[in-house]
Amino acid sequence: MSDRKQPDERVQRYLQWYSLRFRDEPEDHILRGLKDHGLGEFGSPQALYARLASDGFPVCRKCGETPVPPEHCQEPKPARKRRARLAGEREELPPAAAAAGIFHAALIALKDDIVKLADRREWLQGERFMAGDYQTGRVVLRLLNEDSLVDPPAETVLQEHGEVAVPRGAGQAPAEPLTTLIGVAVLTGYPLPPLLRALHPDPSTIRAERLEQAVQEAKDKVRQLARLVRGGEIRRGPPTEEVSPLEQLAAWEIHGLLQAGATKREVEDHLKAMGFGKETVSRLRSLRLDPDIR
Fold this sequence. Notes:
A hairpin with a 2-residue loop joins β1 (120-125) and β2. 43% of the residues lie in helices and 12% in strands. Strands 1-2-3 form a three-stranded antiparallel sheet, with no helix packed on it. It has 294 residues and is α+β, with helices and mostly antiparallel strands. The model is unreliable at 148-159 (pLDDT under 50). It has helices at residues 9-22, 27-36, 45-54, 100-116, 178-187, 192-199, 208-229, 245-259, 264-273, 278-287; strands at residues 120-125, 128-142, 157-171. Among the domains are: 9-54; 102-190, no CATH class; 245-287.
């Protein structure tokens, strides 16, 4: 018989909270009860609600109502229709595979950086991350003598075996390569809980809402970077409406039908059978997306 799985802390936290809330326990009693059961320490009920919502449970981040969407108390944003920008002049881009060697080189560099972490020691002091790489080897101490013609004088060179400490600075973010490695892990979709358990001194204190915001901001910045590298532009104003893969397939289908001589009504009837409404078909037709498969 296989070993039983360990209980999921997220589920335990939600069930314990729901049980206490169902019995109308005061909020401070609920927070204390979760702490006593080792299910996290939270500075306020809202911090707990945000954590439960980020764990995937239907809890309102503001009032704690359940089961409701996490945005239960947020006022709905007024709907604003944005017309998709019409297709402009088509420009062929260099093949993405042209950068394959660069990406492979980056992966090799990341692997080397991971190995270097074995010598890394870090601490947090005065809101600064300080780091040093510690290696055992030969320590060379040079006592400089300005009056000597030899630099440094041979008789002032002392050699001994010990631990060599290489400073890596003190900054607002962990010293490289750790910051880059954390970013890569997040951008590749690695789940945050294991990352926090491995690197955070006390994951229960982190603000889940702020963490999610930082992740989204990082992804948005990388998208902007990729857009510039690939030849796009970043401009002010509302962004151009994006097209999902399914909508792209429908736009290609529209293009093929029109090329084959289909009428507007025939195109609409065909796309309706695929689940697209008349307004969506009109919008996708205006994009004039051509698969150009060669």
